[in-house]
Amino acid sequence: MKNKLTVAAVSVLLGSVSSGLAVAADYPPSATKAPVDPAMQGVLERTKPPGIPVGSFVFLPSLFASAGYNSNITASGTNEKADALFIVRPAAQLESNWTRHYLSFDAYFESGTYTDYSTANWENYSVGTNTRIDVSADLEILGYARFAHLNELPGDDETDTGLTSPLPYDQTTAGVGFRKEFNRLWTKVLFDYRDRSFDTWLDGAPTNQSYRDGQDYTLSGRVGYFISPLTSVFVEGKYEWSFMEDTNYDAEQYWITTGLQFEPSRLTRGEVYVGYTDWSSDGTLDSIPHFTYGANLNWFATPLLTVTFTALQDVLTSNYSVGGVEGSSVLSSTFGVRGDYEWRRNLLLSAWFSYNNQDYYNLPRNDDQYTAGAELRYLINRYATARLTYNYTDFTSNFNGINGVEDYDQSIVSAGIVLTY
């Protein structure tokens, strides 16, 4: 029941500006991890501003503003509308710089405004906090909480629902956990909670989102072993249960995976895993037992080039109905690659590509989405960065033309500036 990795979500994983927030990223950094040497940082990480000292905290304000053009704001094949787009996003973070423990608060507001089609405008905002308590040198307690008002934009649907205008929703996430080390062994246990409530109106008409309004609970435990100071092998078990307003979509899922976790090193950072998972619902949706995998891996090919690989397989649900079939479980598989290159000290080049496939188990429907893009960043000075970005999306389905499903392509180009202090 997680979010689909469409343009917005892939941008989170691959490092672009996005209005979404990944739950896993809300956990604070571990005190037991090795410090990141500047030589081991990714290309984009080296531009982080120093911030403003406020006692034992650092205040990090920022402002992003851009003007652009969207060739298909409705993400449709028969009702295409093009328009100029303006985005403004002020944000702030207050982060502790203590030698022990960690605490941070963050917030942002984002406004997207079109010139001609005001019904496509959106506003997002979020406030959150996360903390780490260092009980001892080998035991830490982790926690976070966040509230966000977001919009699902056309083309960013979890599964293609034919959105032609933004669909607002509220999302509350929270979690708590701990990490403990025993010489070369370490353990990590996390509990995550998410509640979502979608608007009941879409572009002036009622919309039924009860199949994904509700709560998700996830309990996960991981046991790892340091095979070297910077590399661990781990085994993880995870169980998730969901309670939706439409009880036909209540579900449970468990995972058993194994993988490698890399701390900051001269070649790699991140993790990769493979395993088995089983998803089942309390209603009529087909169960999906399947092999699963995931990756979020940085490869420091050279001091000037960072390559990021991402992969994720997960199960979603859809209320798409046709031929007497009411809704379906969906196996979603995503792969992505991104490169960031420091062409000059103040010129950074980025390019990315991702592929998402969604296989409907209750229907013979199969969707493919390809996303590619590039960005040029010019570091004007330590406080300002100019950005020129292009993103292209191509969506195709074997159900094209059936009950609202439409193939489409979309191009978005924008020029913006990020001000930090």
What does this structure look like?
The chain is mainly β. It has a single domain (about 5-45, about 130-420), classed as Beta Barrel (Maltoporin, Chain A). It is built from one helix and 21 strands. A hairpin with a 6-residue loop joins strand 12 and strand 13. The longest helix is centred in the first third of the chain and has 8 residues, at about 5-15. It is globular. The protein starts with 6 loop residues before the first helix and ends with a strand. Residues about 1-25 have low confidence and may be disordered.
Observed structural traits:
mainly beta; 421 residues; 1 helix; 21 strands; 18-stranded antiparallel β-barrel; globular; Maltoporin, Chain A; single chain; two-stranded antiparallel ribbon
Compile the SSE list and pairings.
Elements: H1 7-14, E1 52-54, E2 57-70, E3 83-96, E4 102-114, E5 122-136, E6 139-152, E7 167-182, E8 185-198, E9 201-202, E10 205-206, E11 214-228, E12 231-244, E13 251-262, E14 268-281, E15 288-302, E16 305-322, E17 325-344, E18 347-360, E19 366-381, E20 384-397, E21 408-420
Antiparallel strand pairs: 1-2, 2-3, 2-21, 3-4, 4-5, 5-6, 6-7, 7-8, 8-11, 9-10, 11-12, 12-13, 13-14, 14-15, 15-16, 16-17, 17-18, 18-19, 19-20, 20-21
